[in-house]
Design brief:
12 helices; alpha/beta; Spore Coat Polysaccharide Biosynthesis Protein SpsA, Chain A; UDP N-Acetylglucosamine Acyltransferase, domain 1; 9-stranded parallel sheet; elongated
Length: 514
């Protein structure tokens, strides 16, 4: 890191923590690129998949799947923003790919070199795992399976490959080139057949002469491919790799920029490792969806649809979701629902069309959330709560909203902040209620609030009716009349201000047009 970036250096140092000692695995997340093809002022790494930035989704899956807190996130374009949103945690450090940020020759190989410089070599030969930060559907199960595959072999390098099911014309991924059945002289390849020769980038294939065979040597033999054969290969590079640390550190300096991209490409390590007699392995991913990465908006939207479908499939036999194409329940909410179902049995929860439930929302049995409700922050709903269409509930950080059993909040009401509603309370249409840390809102049981009413920071006794009133920071007591009924609160309005600014508008005497 140079003197031209002291602010970035300080920010990354503040967010970074030392690696956990004696852990045999380190995850590297490549999150330095901006993503020009995504056509957005925001970093591609901060584009959200199902409510979470893609870089954070990848980092979390890597941490869980590797069962290791040790992780380096490589940042470059908008480095500080990406790092701060990723967040500090034990074992996580941030490395700055300055070549990318300054426009000099960079690439995935340079990014991994930068990551290796962020931590010291270990006397124990650790395993280094590399993942693209835009692989936003990556799951910890995929990471775990890849880890087990690498640990079960004696390989120095392993790559996770995928299968491209589209036409060759739309396949922009690097191709996995394997040893064919016959070498260039027509002799059988024998036991070498199927081993990985190299990864050939799509742009490099397009740069080949169409009338000349492409030849490549391995283990003293030569293999030949036509340009068309390379383009028609369906096994593709996902950008996920595993290495033995000592071997990776030894050979990564051999990367060069002799390719169409003019970059240090991590994929070239396949060729370099093979040239030194190192063992290179590959394993195919079971699912195309979980290894999908995005460079353009259309693929990003496709991933959003996939994440929504996964969420619906997890819940479709547990709760009722009115529209499987139009809802958002954060992953934490989904986990809470599934745990609640295991603990409490049938839930009878209903989620309307267009409902949005943020990560801090906790549901309960017989909760009915109508169309277009929006709940953000830490909100705890009791049993049998009913929210009408368009209700908005929200809290600021460190605040909690508690909605008691059997509460009804009818259409388009807005409740915000540090606010508790007692059991059986009914909030009818046209109500705005707010509680702050200084003046929390506390509402008793069986309270009815209706009409055009605004309440802020009040404490309200049980069984009170409030209608067409504006009340701030008051204790609203239950007062019984002689007949035993409870006195309602109606038309409590503050005195008007600014009356001297109001003057009559002169009458217009212009003729009426026929």
């Amino acid at each position: 890191m140079t003197e031209s970036s002291p602010g970035i250096a300080a920010a990354l140092s503040e967010l970074s923590s030392p690696m956990v000692p004696d852990c045999p695995r380190v995850g590297v997340v490549l999150a330095a690129g901006h993503g020009k093809r995504i056509r957005s002022a925001n970093s591609k790494m901060l584009h959200e998949i199902w409510g979470r930035p893609t870089v954070l989704r990848v980092a979390s899956a890597v941490q869980r799947g590797l069962d290791s807190d040790n992780q380096v996130i490589v940042v470059g374009i908008k480095a500080e923003e990406v790092a701060r949103i990723s967040g500090a945690r034990t074992g996580r450090s941030f490395a700055f790919q300055e070549n990318l940020a300054s426009g000099r020759a960079a690439g995935t190989g340079d990014a991994v070199r930068v990551a290796l410089e962020a931590f010291q070599p270990s006397p124990h030969d650790r395993d280094i795992y590399v993942f693209p930060g835009d692989m936003g559907l990556l799951t910890d199960n995929v990471v775990k399976q890849f880890r087990r595959s690498f640990e079960s072999t004696a390989g120095d390098m392993m790559m996770l490959t995928g299968t491209y099911s589209g036409s060759p014309e739309t396949n922009y991924y690097g191709r996995i080139v394997r040893v064919p059945a016959l070498d260039a002289d027509g002799n059988s390849s024998g036991a070498a057949e199927g081993t990985v020769i190299e990864i050939k980038e799509h742009k490099d294939i397009l740069g080949l002469a169409g009338d000349k065979p492409y030849t490549v040597g391995q283990n003293g033999r030569t293999y030949s491919f036509t340009r068309a054969e390379l383009l028609e290969l369906t096994e593709i590079n996902t950008g996920v790799f595993a290495f033995k640390e000592s071997v990776l550190r030894r050979y990564i300096p051999e990367l060069d920029t002799a390719n169409v991209q003019g970059e240090y490409m991590l994929t070239d390590l396949v060729r370099i490792f093979n040239s030194h007699g190192r063992t290179v392995c590959a394993v195919r991913a079971a699912s195309e969806e979980e290894i999908l990465a995005f460079n353009v908006k259309s693929v990003w939207h496709q991933m959003q649809h996939t994440a929504r479908r996964w969420a619906y499939e997890r819940l479709m036999d547990t709760i009722t979701i009115a529209d499987e194409e139009d809802f958002f329940l954060a992953e934490e909410v989904i986990e809470h629902i599934l745990e609640l179902d295991q603990r409490c049995g049938p839930l009878d929860i209903v989620i309307g069309k267009g409902v949005y439930l943020d990560s801090g929302v906790q549901l309960n049995r017989r909760v009915h959330i109508s169309d277009r409700c929006h709940l953000t922050g830490e909100i705890i709903l009791g049993e049998g709560v009913f929210l009408g269409p368009g209700v908005q509930l929200s809290t600021y950080p460190s605040q909690v909203m508690r909605i008691g059993d059997g509460v009804e909040i009818l259409s388009r009401n807005i409740l915000k902040g540090n606010l508790w509603l007692g059991a059986g309370t009914r909030i009818e249409s046209g109500v705005l209620m707010t509680g702050s840390d200084t003046f929390p809102m506390r509402v008793g049981e069986r309270v009815i609030v209706k009409g055009t009413t605004y309440l802020y920071g009040c404490r309200i006794d049980d069984d009170v009716l409030i209608e067409h009133s504006i009340v701030q920071c008051k204790r609203i007591e239950q007062v019984r009349r002689r007949d035993g009924s409870i006195q309602p609160i109606r038309y409590v309005l503050p005195p008007p201000e600014g009356l001297d600014s109001l003057t009559p508008v002169p009458r217009c005497n212009a003729r009426r047009h026929r």
